[in-house]
């Protein structure tokens, strides 16, 4: 029986690439669900966190708050010491606009370089 691989070949270019296996896809799906649950839990807890721990960093894994520390690095270190996978964590600083979508200001077309006469 031939062993299957996770490589695909692009015959025209001669390049190869990999694609997710079933277990990799499951891991990706699980991580996505955990991230969504974590953001939801953080959003729910933000008002209380602003009262008790403004300016600190917090980590959630799924719906559970797992770590709280003074810096982002300290949160990751504490989570690693607890055996948590960093890819499954939602880590954010506690501040008033933490759950708002960022606003991006793009220059107007007339402000673009090269428009000078």
What distinguishing features does this structure have?
117 residues; alpha+beta; three-stranded antiparallel beta sheet; disordered N terminus
Write the layout of secondary structure elements.
Blueprint: E1 7-10, E2 15-18, H1 22-52, E3 57-61, E4 64-69, H2 72-81, E5 90-93
Extended strand count? 5
- What amount of the residues lies in strands? 15-25%
| Regions with little confidence, pLDDT below 50 for 5+ residues | 1-19
Class by alpha and beta content: alpha+beta
If you compute it from the alpha carbons, what radius of gyration comes out, rounded to the nearest whole angstrom? 21 Å
> In what order do the strands lie side by side in the largest sheet?
4-3-5
Helix count, per DSSP?
Answer: 2
Anisotropy-based shape: globular
Average pLDDT rating? 80
H/E order of the elements? Answer: EEHEEHE
Q: Cα distance, first to last residue?
A: 71 Å
Helix content: 25-40%
Question: How many strands, what sense, and barrel or not for the largest sheet?
Answer: 3 strands, antiparallel
